[in-house]
Write a structure and sequence with these properties.
Layout (H helix, E strand, L loop, with lengths): L3 H23 L12 E8 L12 E9 L4 E9 L5 E8 L7 E3 L13 E8 L2 H8 L3 E7 L7 E4 L1 E3 L1
Length: 160
C-alpha cells in the first residue's frame, strides 16, 4: 500500500503539472481579428458650418461608404442653392468648428457646373486618413466665385 505521503506528493505533482499547462495555454498570444465591416458616410453641408460662417442658401448632402479591407472610400455629393457654379470642392481634416488641412486631390468639377449639381468619386485612404475619417475628423467644402474659400461645409460622420 502506498503511504499518505506518496499519494499526497503524486497529487501535488499532477496538480502542479495541470496548473502549469493551463498557465501556458492561457498566456499564448491570441490573434486579434480586424473588424472589416464597412462604414456608412453621411454629411449635410451649409454655409453656417464654414469657419467663419457664410450667409447663403446653399446646401449639400454627402453619402458614401468606407471599406476598411480595401481602404476605399466611395461617395456622392449633391448640392443646390449655391450663389453660382461650384468652382471647387474637396476634403479636409478637422473637427467641427475648426479649420483643417486639405486631404487628397480636390474634386475635378466640370467647367459648366452650376449652383445645383452632383459629384461622385472614389479615394484610397492611408491608415492615418482612415482613422481621422472614422473618428469624425473630416469635412468637405464647396467653393464658388463669390466664396472661393468655401461657401458650404459639411462634417462627415462615419457609422457602422
Amino acid at each position: 500500500m502506498k503511504t499518505k505521503t506518496a499519494i499526497l506528493s503524486k497529487l501535488i505533482f499532477v496538480s502542479t503539472f495541470v496548473l502549469f499547462g493551463l498557465f501556458i495555454l492561457s498566456s499564448c498570444e491570441k490573434k486579434s481579428t480586424t473588424d472589416n465591416r464597412p462604414y456608412t458616410l453621411t454629411g449635410d453641408a451649409a454655409g453656417t458650418q464654414m469657419v467663419p460662417p457664410v450667409a447663403g442658401n446653399g446646401t449639400a448632402t454627402f453619402n458614401g461608404t468606407y471599406d476598411p479591407s480595401t481602404h476605399t472610400m466611395t461617395y456622392t455629393s449633391n448640392w443646390n442653392g449655391l450663389s453660382g457654379g461650384a468652382t471647387g470642392a474637396g476634403f479636409y481634416t478637422g473637427g467641427a468648428g475648426s479649420v483643417g488641412t486639405s486631404v487628397g486631390t480636390p474634386w475635378t468639377l466640370p467647367a459648366d457646373t452650376t449652383g445645383t449639381g452632383t459629384y461622385s468619386g472614389t479615394m484610397t485612404l492611408t491608415d492615418a486618413q482612415a482613422s481621422q475619417l472614422t473618428a469624425g475628423n473630416w469635412y468637405y467644402t464647396m467653393n464658388t466665385a463669390a466664396n472661393p474659400s468655401g461657401e458650404i461645409r459639411g462634417q462627415i460622420v462615419a457609422t457602422r
